[in-house]
Amino acid sequence: LMSPYRSIVSAEAVWDHVTMADRELAFKAGDVIKVLDASNKDWWWGQIDDEEGWFPASFVRLWVNQEESTTVETVEGASPSPSEVQNGHAEASPSSSDCLCLGQTVQNRDQMRANVINEIMSTERHYIKHLKDICEGYFRQCKKRRDMFNDDQLRVIFGNIEDIYRFQMGFVRDLEKQYNTEEPHLSEIGPCFLEHQDGFWIYSEYCNNHVDACMELSRLMKDGRYQHFFEACRLVQQMIDIAIDGFLLTPVQKICKYPLQLAELLKYTVQEHSDYRYVAAALAVMRNVTQQINERKRRLENIDKIAQWQASVLDWEGDDILDRSTELVYTGEMSWIYQPYGRSQTRVFFLFDHQMVLCKKDLIRRDILYYKGRMDMDRYNLVDAVDGRDDDFNVSVKNAFKLSNKDSDEIHIFLAKKLEEKLRWLKAFHEERKMVQEDEKIGFEISEYQKRQAAMTVRRMTKQKGHRSVPPGYPPPMDPMNPGQYLVGDGMEQSEFEFPEPERCKSPFWQSFSRLTPFRK
To answer: What is the distance in angstroms between the CA of the first residue and the CA of the last residue of the chain?
Structure first.
């Protein structure tokens, strides 16, 4: 096929393209494709290395390298309509009006906005079809086979997929109402994202569960019965030729795709457009959703380390850390006075979400800890303490703060060695409360399955080490905060205040465990 272009044309893949038919070109996001023919507005013909094939134009951004300029122009093609694409094949209907011409620096802005709107609507309709196939083709059939799947397995494999399906149907229904079929560029879809913004948080539970789902599926697929069962489900539902794990990946990919689509839509929406401010707000909302989902996924990846740390602490009493907490927020050594005893003691404090654990260092082996108690952070208020004589304890204090019990007269006072350390603790307590509130908002918690997996990991490592008093091995030491920097601020933006770095001498064990704290760039 001869290229209609008058200069070298390459395209960068924006999303992965999984081939569903012969003569399609497979690629991953970031791959560079040489465009050989773009005479059809929906499906282009391209080449990667020695492979050639069709691919959807909406999956790439066009790079135009002109000899006279170093500027890179980006163009996004329109998405294929359901009537033109059947089972992954496109009905080619080339026309001269559809052919992109490099003599033009950019397409008409309204046409570009229409292309993006059409692409969003098309992907939403296809996504609903995928969700329906998962719920009706797989989940419903699995629930009928109690001889093969128990409730725990179904919960691990499919998570809250039915909740996502119900939410997504309502979202698409509202999108369709806002879609202007005659003039797509006039569509106002920004408000739909804002109206449904709280509903998107249900993806957090699904994404957090996805790794466990893949592990469980991999285990089941070792049995030929399950391979045949899932393949039979796919054929009965008349689904495309993708394995079940590919279908279960689509919600994870979808929630990550929204910011990309909204950013593209905003780029081709003029400020005078009635949808502009809504699209801008929707983009900020969806970026925050994906950021928080990624953050919670990172926290789940750390639970093994938290369980290992608990196993290394001697004389542990009470519930496991993971029964209530998922994140080490901050750690450090301070002097501590507890009313009414009034005697100053030095302790190492580990602040997690919901609780703070108190430990004492071994007199000889300073890298070994003894459990000395914990504080339920949901029951305490943080109170700053001014330098000078404190009325509650009748002692002179400096760089201090207090925790007062909400239900009694119980008060604890903590004294940091330096002002910088006090400020870090105050920030840490603020972050802990903020984290708890956000977790409650979206219902984030560790599943019993994930707790059991972490416990099994700890038992296996403890058995290999021979006894539980040896601290677990961690990567090379890293301070929980960047030297000399204290991060403050809410939302996406943060300010930085410079302080001299406090002189601290920590053993490699404390430094390595403090790597779990989020106060790092």
So the answer is: 49
Q: How would you label 20-48 residue by residue, b for 16+ Cβ within 10 Å and e otherwise? A: eeeebbebeeebebebbbbbbbbbbbbeb
- Nearest-CA neighbor of 344 among 426, 424, 414? 414
CA distance 273 to 521: 37
In order of 37, 38, 48, 88, the CA distances from 1 in angstroms are 7, 10, 15, 21
Say how far residue 208 (Cα) sits from the centre of its chain: 8
Hey, which bits of 89-190 come out as E strands? 89-90
CA dist., res. 240 & res. 237, Å (int): 9
pTM: 0.58
Measure the CA–CA gap between 399 and 418, rounded to whole angstroms.
6
Tell me how far apart the alpha carbons of residues 167 and 174 are, in angstroms, rounded to a whole number. Answer: 11
At 95, the pLDDT band (50, 70, 90 cuts) reads very low
Among candidate residues 359, 394, 401, 366, the one with its CA nearest the CA of residue 380: 401
**127 within 8 A of 208, measured Cβ to Cβ:** no
Q: Which of 75, 116, 61 is nearest to 265 (CA)?
A: 116
| pLDDT for residue 235 | 93
pLDDT value of residue 451: 77
75 pLDDT band, cuts 50/70/90, is very low
- Is the pLDDT at 3 greater than 90, yes or no? no
Among 147, 125, 128, which Cα is nearest to 136's?
Answer: 128
Rounded average pLDDT over 98-117: 61
257 is written with which tokens?
Answer: 């795709």
**Residue 269 burial (CB count, 10 A):** 25
Q: How many CB atoms lie within 10 A of CB 418?
A: 15
77, 95, 252 from 99: Cα distances, Å: 11, 7, 34
pLDDT at 86 over 80: no
For residue 15, the Cα-to-chain-centroid distance in whole angstroms is 17
Q: Give the C-alpha separation, 291 to 204, whole Å.
A: 10
Smallest Cα–Cα separation from 401: which of 359, 442, 438, 356? 356
Residue 21 token pair: 């038919």
Which run of H or of E encompasses 376? strand 369-376
Residue 498 — very low, low, confident or very high, per pLDDT cuts 50/70/90?
very low
Report d(CA 429, CA 354) in Å as an integer. Answer: 10
